[in-house]
Design brief:
Elements lengths: L7 H15 L17 H4 L14 H7 L11 E2 L1 H9 L5 E3 L5 H5 L11 E8 L7 E8 L2 H7 L11 E6 L2 E10 L10 E10 L5 E13 L2 E9 L5 H23 L5
Antiparallel strand pairs: 1-3, 2-5, 3-4, 4-9, 5-6, 6-7, 7-8, 8-9
Organism: Streptomyces indicus
Protein name: PknH-like extracellular domain-containing protein
Keywords: Signal
Amino acid sequence: MRTRNSLTLTGVLAAAALTAVAGCGGAADAEENPKSTTSPSSSASASPSAKPAAPLTQGQAEEALIEVSDLPVGWKVDAAGAEEAEGGEGPALKADKPQCQPLLDGSFGGSGPRAKAEAYAAFTKDADYGPFLLAGVEAFTEKQAEALMEPVEATDGCESFTGSYEGDEVLFRTQELSVPQVGDGEAYGFRFSVEYEDEDGYVWVDQTDTVVARVGGAILQVSQQSDGGNDQEAFDRAVEKLVEKTRKVAAKGAAGAGV
């Protein structure tokens, strides 16, 4: 029988994908002075002397998270999934291509800045079989977040590679996804698929789709993991609602009504 434990592998990759897609890491340690150019949406309203908005607080990051009521009928809260994401601990994975190892350990972004606050919410349709959905909010300064969202070629040479997991060989495939442009600036999409054989000799293929977007200084992640039974409506709605709620929370904070 297939259980949640057999899905732990891609569950960890969902969290790792945030750094792999969004981060160039070191660049986010750049000076905090705003760039000389501004986006069309902000240039008209921001004065030259306006201070950059402060990073979201822990309370604001939690407030921005989606809830089960934001998803289609049939989804429920997965408290254990949120705890796993917050813990940041995963199984030891070893890639056969050294350049692909950062995709497995979540260190592609290098030694970038630590988030000032972070919060996660997880949901599932079935505790054993999924699909599973993870939403995350990480708070940085706007300068740091902009740098972290600069594109990197995370999948170059790693479109297909093998790795080891608890002594077993696993096949990984990666590809970019076309995603709607939500948030501030460019959003990114990323798919991780994992093929492995269980103890009964049955071959499973799990995939994790991730979208990463930015709202001000907040970097948002939505990941859905499944074995082919994706709920695209839930995935799209989660991305839309997470961006919408984060924008509202950030606006309240800017008006002095934050947490």
